[in-house]
Amino acid sequence: MMFKITMVFQQHQAKVRVALSGVDYCNTVLVGSPMSTTDRLQRVLNAATCVVSGTGKFDHGLTQLRHSELHWLVVPERIKYKLGVTIYRCL
Predict the structure, then answer these.
(1) CA neighbours within 13 Å on the CB side: how many for 49?
(2) Mapping DSSP to helix (H, G, I), strand (E, B) and coil, where does residue 58 land?
(3) pLDDT tens profile 47-67
(4) Mean pLDDT of the chain
(5) Is the pLDDT reported for residue 9 higher than 50?
(6) What residue ranges do the domains of the chain occupy?
(7) What stretches of the chain show up as alpha helix (H) in DSSP?
């Protein structure tokens, strides 16, 4: 029984990692992109938050959960952070 629970948890964890890697992949080229583009990535991030936390899409406090417990930034902030890290590494 414990093995099955562990396998299910690992599958969810793998799905979230794939989703987050898709959000972070080459996101520095998205600097200055329209909000319609970043909104699509934000929906992926919101879905990953629901999977990790086990909450529903319309549960109260999902944004606060993402910031305070998971320490995830919203997509425009992730893009700026990734750009800053890339510039820092180049210097």
Answers:
(1) 27
(2) coil
(3) 887 777 777 777 777 777 776
(4) 76
(5) yes
(6) 2-90
(7) 2-24, 35-53, 62-68, 75-90
